[in-house]
Design brief:
By secondary structure, the chain is an alpha/beta fold. The protein folds into two domains: 119 residues, Rossmann fold; 91 residues, Orthogonal Bundle (Arc Repressor Mutant, subunit A), CATH 1.10.10.10. It contains nine helices and 13 strands. One of its GO terms (biological process) is regulation of DNA-templated transcription.
C-alpha cells in the first residue's frame, strides 16, 4: 500500500511515517497542500492521509478540488478538529474516513487497510484466492492454513496482487503502487521478486500474461 501523508506537524508526521513504514506501508509525506495537489495529480497512491490545518490552505479545499477533478482515491482526514461541523465539512468535501488527534497509530493503520480493501470491492478483512489467505488487518499470509514468511517488499507486492485478483496487473502499475517514486525498479527487479514469491507460494499461483503483466489465480479454478 502506497500512501501520501499530508501533515505540517513535523514530529507527528515523522513518527506516523515511521510507524506506518514499520507496518509495511510505503509512505511519502509533504507539509504543503500545494505539493500534495501536485503529487496526487502526477503520482499513484492507494490512499491519502490529509490534515485539515495546512499552512497554505484548509485541507477541505484541496480535497474538494480533487473530487471535482475526478480524483477518487481514498482520503482519510486526520485532524485536531473534532466538532461535528468540521467532520461534516470534511465528509462533504469528499473524505472517506475521519480520525481526530490524538490518535492511536494502530487505528489509523486499520482504517487505511479497510479503505484500500473497500476501494477494491472487498468487504471481508481476510482476502482469499483459493487456499491463499491474506489478512488485511495484520498483513499475515497463510497457504493451506500455514503461515508464509515474506520480506516487507514481497508482502507489499503480494498484497497488491491479492487486492487486484483476478485482474491482470501490469509491471508499471506494480511499480507505481508498490515502490517509492524515487526508487522505482526496472522490470527485471519485479521479475526477480515475483520469482521469489513463486518459490514460496507455488510456481503456478502467479501467472505471467505475456505483454500484460501478472495475475494471481485460484489454482483450483485455473486447473
Amino acid at each position: 500500500m502506497k500512501v501520501l501523508l499530508v501533515e505540517d506537524d513535523g514530529p507527528l508526521a515523522e513518527a506516523l511515517s515511521a510507524a506506518l513504514a514499520d507496518a509495511g506501508v510505503l509512505i511519502e509525506s509533504t507539509a504543503s497542500g500545494t505539493e500534495a495537489d501536485f503529487l496526487v495529480q502526477t503520482e499513484h497512491y492507494d490512499a491519502v492521509i490529509l490534515d485539515l490545518g495546512l499552512p497554505d490552505g484548509d485541507g477541505t479545499r484541496w480535497l474538494a478540488q480533487w473530487r471535482e477533478a475526478g480524483i477518487d482515491l481514498p482520503v482519510l482526514v486526520l485532524t485536531a478538529r473534532e466538532r461535528w461541523a468540521d467532520k461534516a465539512a470534511g465528509f462533504s468535501a469528499g473524505a472517506d474516513d475521519y480520525v481526530t488527534k490524538p490518535f492511536e497509530t494502530a487505528e489509523v493503520l486499520f482504517r487505511l487497510r479497510a479503505l484500500m480493501r473497500r476501494s477494491h470491492g472487498h468487504a471481508h478483512p481476510v482476502l482469499r484466492v483459493g487456499d491463499l489467505a491474506f489478512d488485511t488487518h495484520t498483513g499475515s499470509v497463510t497457504l493451506t492454513g500455514r503461515p508464509v514468511s515474506l520480506t516487507a517488499q514481497e508482502s507489499r507486492l503480494l498484497a497488491y496482487l491479492v487486492h487486484a485478483a483476478p485482474r491482470v496487473v501490469s509491471r508499471a502499475e506494480l511499480a507505481e503502487h508498490v515502490y517509492d517514486r524515487d526508487h522505482e525498479p526496472d522490470s527485471n527487479v519485479i521479475d526477480v521478486q515475483i520469482s521469489r514469491l513463486r518459490r514460496k507460494l507455488g510456481s503456478q499461483r502467479i501467472q505471467t500474461q505475456r505483454g500484460q503483466g501478472y495475475r494471481l489465480v485460484d489454482l483450483d479454478e485455473a486447473s
